[in-house]
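DM from R.C. (forwarded with permission)

"hey, sorry to bug you on a friday — could you get me a structure for this? deadline for the figure draft is monday and I only need the backbone to look sensible"
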Amino acid sequence: ESRRPVSKLEQTVEAFVTKLKRREILGSLEVAVMTAELLRKVISLMRFSTCEALMNEVRSLGKRLQAAAPTELCIGNVVRRVLYIVRQEYRVLMSEDPANSEAQQQAVDMNVALKTLLEMRGEDDYSVDIESRQRDLIRPILNEIAELVSEITSVYDSISGQAVEHIHANESILVYGRSKTILEFLCEAKNSRVRSLRC
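My reply, with the result:
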């Protein structure tokens, strides 16, 4: 039986899946960043004729990654966020098409509330042939995913920056389990004010 050659991209995906299965990647932060980077790489190398085909590929890869590490909920969150980015950029692309006035009316603000994000259903037609405008869609998607990675990597800074507002004098803080997020939060509170706080 002859087997088709495995592409470099497939090898990268398979290597990541194997690392997830063997639990070689520790911590939700690292898993989330690596998932976003992998999706970015897959999207940049993908060829598709419709936005629906792109979204199906992202969903398929997301299911494969989640099956490899079902306890890492951040994988599903990152995949859903990337799908949201794809939908948003598709709407922007379609709103720029002067022949598509209906899409102009459906273009939405990029700062949509989480409730709106969760309630969005198949309002748009993602089966429109966009093969000729594929690069116009991919470029902003890749930029947005890069911003997502930046947002994920700065999560400790943004959370620990709020420590002073939430920890007050003479309070007892009970912590259960180990968490780098909580450790960073408490250490920032200790460093920002003179307190008898031990980390």
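R.C.: lifesaver. The radius of gyration is 21 Å.
me: no worries. The longest helix spans residues 73-95.
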